[in-house]
Design goal:
The structure holds two protein chains of two kinds. Chain A is built from four helices and no strands. Chain A is mostly helical. Chain A folds into two domains: 57 residues, no CATH class; 45 residues, no CATH class. Classes of the chains: A mainly alpha, B mainly alpha.
Chain lengths: 105, 254
């Protein structure tokens, strides 16, 4: 690949990314009120998105072979337990990550 | 009563240091701690990415500029393999669209929140990555802090950590050899925490359940590299079909 082709390849990746980020704002003008269906999606989707992102982080964990994803499950359990107990984002994240790091050694 | 509260206020007013009274600075002071969880994750994953590009024979300018311009972790890793394959711009474009399609959902969720942000709006949308979206969506703007500056700083700080990580990784990847195995779990833990927060906040867990089930189903059907687009399509269809019921149970009837 030549340098120009490299630049073009990176360029189309930038363009595709920006298209997905800007499209909703371009389609629904900020001057007009957002249509009720989009307002509904804006409220209904985040829970599904966060659920999807958690699954996305675990997409390469194999639960049937190896250690059966036990470090991940334990790390998540500790994170959730700490969070329900202290409600402090930093403590929950650090605690869960520490337990995970100890488990994978 | 009135006199007393007035007195209190006149006492409270001068106690604020004058230099921190600028809305931008006050917002930065409030935003920085919020980005704490991202620092470790972005620096580490960014550095692994920079290191990976360096190992593939690219100068540190590549990870640096790609972190700045693309600013999307998973696509940046895929772009490296695109750069090592024969030139196929259309295929790259479609692949990038599919990897990044989830950002459409973030935009939809932020439509009303990002209204009236003036000149900051362009950058807020440009920098709306997974982690920044999750942080901004789940964090309440503290009282007395300018909303626009607050979300602007969160976006800019996160972007900065990512660029710094990628550049450092590209520059000195091979020199840094300390044992950080497993530290990338920071990001998983962060999304788990934000998901838990969301569950505690909402009235009804319908869409959370739909999200988990659809993602697990599609992960099994389509595999780890291409389950996101079908998951999003499936969630969108179900959430649309059962709109009345979900809106009623969630308390979102307009």
């Amino acid at each position: 690949m030549t340098f120009t082709q490299q630049l073009l390849t990176i360029g189309v990746c930038v363009a595709a990314t920006m298209l997905t980020r800007f499209l909703p704002f371009l389609v629904f003008s900020s001057r007009k009120p957002t249509p009720p269906y989009m307002q509904y999606l804006g409220k209904a989707l985040p829970s599904a998105i966060f659920a999807m992102l958690v699954v996305y982080c675990l997409r390469n964990v194999s639960f049937l072979t190896g250690n059966h994803g036990l470090p991940e499950l334990l790390g998540i359990a500790i994170t959730v337990a700490l969070h329900l107990w202290k409600r402090n984002m930093m403590i929950s994240i650090l605690g869960g990550t520490l337990v995970y790091m100890i488990c994978v050694r | 009563m009135d006199g007393a509260s007035n007195k209190n206020q006149s006492f409270r007013q001068p106690s604020l240091p004058p230099e921190s009274s600028h809305p931008a600075r006050r917002a930065l002071e409030a935003a920085f701690p919020v980005t704490g969880p991202i620092i470790a994750g972005f620096l580490f994953i960014g550095m692994s990415y920079g290191f990976y590009m360096q190992r593939q024979g690219f100068s540190f300018w590549y990870p640096c500029l790609m972190a700045l311009m693309i600013y999307g972790g998973s696509l940046e890793f895929v772009t490296v393999s695109m750069l090592l394959s024969p030139f196929a711009p259309l295929q790259c474009f479609l692949m990038a669209l599919m990897i990044q399609a989830r950002h459409l959902f973030y935009g939809i969720a932020m439509l009303d929140r990002y209204k009236g942000m003036g000149w900051k709006k362009f950058y807020l949308i440009f920098g709306l990555c997974d982690e920044t979206f999750a942080l901004i969506y789940s964090t309440k703007v503290p009282e007395g802090v300018d909303k626009g500056w607050f979300v602007f700083w969160i976006t800019l700080l996160d972007h900065f950590y990512w660029i710094a990580g990628a550049t450092l990784g590209g520059l000195l990847g091979s020199l840094v050899a300390f044992d950080t195995k497993g530290i990338d779990f920071v990001m998983t833990a962060m999304f788990v925490v934000i998901f838990v927060e969301q569950l505690l906040k909402e009235k009804c867990h319908d869409t959370a359940r739909i999200g988990i089930l659809m993602a697990c189903l599609c992960l099994n059907l389509f595999g780890p590299n291409s389950f996101m687009v079908p998951t999003m399509a499936g969630v969108l269809i179900i959430v649309t079909l059962f709109r009345k019921r979900i809106a009623r149970r969630g308390g979102w009837e307009s």
